[in-house]
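For homework, think about our next protein:
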Amino acid sequence: MLKLENITKEYKKGDQIIHALNDVSLQAENGEFVVVRGASGSGKTTLLLVAGGLLKSNSGKIILNNEDIYNLTAEKRAIFRANNIGFVFQQYHLIPYLTILENVKVPMLASNTNITENEVIELIDSLGLKERLHHTPGELSAGEKQRTALARALLFKPKILLADEITGNLDPENIEIVMNRLADFKSSGGTILLVTHDKELNKKADKVVYLEKGEILKS
């Protein structure tokens, strides 16, 4: 499903060159749950953005669902992302003046879909948020925003889910809700690439990758 080959990503900060990723190779199969762990600044979020077609690497190749995604035009890559990838960002990226229901339905505005509102509500309910359907992000806890972002990412049943610190703002009860939902996604054939500090998630993963200073230590 996902193959990263010798990925290098550098940033320039003044005269300094920061090596965010250095010759990173990684593979995730269909239905596989891969956890990427590492300290802050180790390159985890950069890896996620590169893998998802949102940030072009300086060198290397990303194959996702048999497509070399950076060989696509920007327009075709955006369509490919919408059809294949679900993102959950650490900052949520919810629209502040829309309700939970409206935020989850946002991807439907740019795509012809036969998903009904009842199906959207069922998805939201599966993440323990049904009573918050008509609340805006400003009325939600950090954990509720995170679960809303996950519902939005899962709406179109993507081939792969890319998630950044998805359990970071959740209590144990809601971590269980989220992990059960991810287990359902995995059992249906979905692939998960999850970056996290949480070592407890190692127990749920098929594969654990450790990043340090942009390099894979072991996997």
Observations:
- The first strand starts at residue 2 and ends at 13.
- The chain has one domain: 2-218.
